[in-house]
Amino acid sequence: MKLYSLSVLYKGDSKAVLLKAAYDVSSFSFFQRSSVQEFMTFTSQLIVERSEKGSRASVKEQEYLCHVYVRNDSLAGVVIADNEYPSRVAFTLLEKVLDEFSKQVDKIDWPVGSPATIHYAALDSYLSRYQNPREADPMTKVQAELDETKIILHNTMESLLERGEKLDDLVSKSEVLGTQSKAFYKTVSTCDPHLFPGKPFLKMGPTVLLVFLSGYQSFLGIFSSHWYVSTL
Amino acid sequence: MAESTEEVAVLVQRVVKDINNAFKRNPHIIDRCHMYPAASKPRLYHCMEREVWHPHQEFDQISEVTRWVLQQLIQENSLPTFVKKENLATFPTEGVEQIVQEEIEVCGEAAGRYPSNYNAWSHRIWVLQHLAKLDVKILLDELSSTKHWASMHVSDHSGFHYRQFLLKSLISQTVTDSAILEQSPLVSEQIPDLPKDDDEEDATAERHRVVDLSRLLEEEVELSTDLIDNYPGHETLWCHRRHVFYLQHHLNSKLAHSLMRLSPVDSSGGTLNDLNLSPAATRMTQAMDVDGLNDSNKHGYSQETKRLKRTPAQDSLGMEMEHRFIEQILSTCRNVEQARFANAYRKWLVTLSQ
């Protein structure tokens, strides 16, 4: 069971603003990491934009579960986890983090903040501690505060979108995703998923990565275009 | 394994070629290898293939080659293997133990790396069966070392299937007649104390190492309860519970069976004749015979069932506890899937007691 990202955002009127984020992309292959991180940011923002204030939801996308909590004061948090990670613990984490964040960071800074300007350093350690839900959260069975029946479940990202809206369009218009990430996203279903063992996030394109490998060849000088040394 | 010898030979050629190329590019790889004293080709390639992963070859191909290489070494008697004499396991020379540990480590990494890791676990089983020869100490070590991994991968069916394999193997390796004699409280008074002199103390300790199987199975049930409680909605955990429940009954009937064979059938010795093998256990046997656990026992069963019976109390106690567990889950869980699995488990238990 795994946590991949933990982000704090502000749900503005027209879009969601990323305030602070922590990522654990160590399980992805080296060349995928920065793109995966961008996709997680993109996804977190999209989910917050499409969620109502005062709501909690879990959005399933392939083998990932994105848990979101948007407070009534527009402060929001997103946890991206795998499908083994218990959702109850994810929501406990979100509650805790947003509570602490709201006490440490002035409300006035939220609507216009960015990771560079916001001073809140606890996310990385929360993400790392909560990798093992047992150590982080003494499993209190009785959860008086959290009514699990009120958590909305979405089976795909698509169900968050408006009628007629396409995820592909949102990806290509996104300011968060770099050109490389957008290129990866495009080369989707034609690729043999076994070429690159690992976990593709939102259908990463392996053949594009091959092109990248040969590009990096001279820079890294260690291995050829089709070698991947296990120690990496 | 499925591949023919020719196909494996082709694979080996490819791996050998790849390894040669990698070595030419990167000589320092050799430093990280464990070089066996007589560095014959198979051994060199065995250690090198671990350092170099060709992304177009999957783990199952690499492990196929590894098994081929190791099999060659075993056959040419280059590898001393685990040898079991009576109840003594002579400790293997460093070579084999090291290989076993390396293979296990690789399997562990592969299991975490690939989403479809069935091959990693099957290879691990192969290593325990053919290299480690189901050595009891290794089985116990594996049981404790995979506990954390399984707890953190609650939907990994192969991981839990591995634990079922370990428990099954422990039962088959330790439930021998003499072990029963030593473990059974009913019969132990009849055994004279074995002579112990100073030189033989270690050996005797080995022989008397009691594997408390009942305790191990109870602990596995506790683990299952703990995981089901804390991680609702994972079918793997419920499947695992069925297997463990079955193993408990299998162990109890096997113990009863052996006890009866070893002790005189004495109608005045009340306790032994009270052991009853209920229809529930027989049906369970049929329901879970997928792994052919009972092949060896089938012939003996029909004669023994008349005399071998578990007390109705023992059987229903286990059932009762399971039903109470299910009730507790159903009354507190809010996860739809969890409720579904709990109900399915209850139905399964009910069909057993009919």
How would you summarize the topology of this molecule?
The complex is a heterodimer of chains A (232) and B (354).
Chain A: E1 3-11, E2 16-23, H1 33-49, E3 55-61, E4 64-70, E5 75-82, H2 87-104, H3 123-129, H4 133-136, E6 152-154, H5 167-173, H6 179-186, H7 206-220, E7 228-229
Parallel strand pairs in A: 3-6
Antiparallel strand pairs in A: 1-2, 1-5, 3-4, 4-5
Chain B: H1 5-25, H2 41-51, E1 52-53, H3 59-75, E2 83-85, E3 88-90, H4 94-113, H5 118-131, H6 136-145, H7 147-152, H8 157-174, H9 177-183, H10 201-207, H11 213-230, H12 235-262, H13 270-273, H14 279-287, H15 298-307, H16 312-332, H17 336-352
Antiparallel strand pairs in B: 2-3
Helix pairs in contact in B: 1-3, 2-3, 3-5, 4-5, 5-8, 6-8, 8-12, 11-12, 16-17
Write a concise synopsis of the structure shown.
The complex is a heterodimer of chains A (232) and B (354). With 232 residues, chain A is an alpha+beta fold.
Low-pLDDT regions of chain B: 30-43, 83-92, 186-196, 202-208, 266-278, 289-312
Number of helices of chain B: 17
Distance linking N and C termini of chain A: 22 Å
Strand order of the largest sheet of chain A: 2-1-5-4-3-6
Give the low-pLDDT segments of chain A.
188-200, 202-232
Assess the beta-strand content of chain A as a share of residues: 15-25%
Instruction: Please give the oligomerization state of what you see.
Output: heterodimer
Share in helix of chain B: 55-70%
- Return the average pLDDT of chain A rounded to an integer: 80
Please tally the helical runs of chain A, counting DSSP H or I stretches of 4 or more residues: 7
* SSE string of chain B: HHEHEEHHHHHHHHHHHHHH
- Sheet having the most strands of chain A: 6 strands, mixed
Helix content of chain A: 25-40%
Order of helices and strands of chain A: EEHEEEHHHEHHHE
Dominant shape of chain A: globular
Q: What's the total count of β strands of chain A?
A: 7
Radius of gyration of chain B from the CA trace?
24 Å
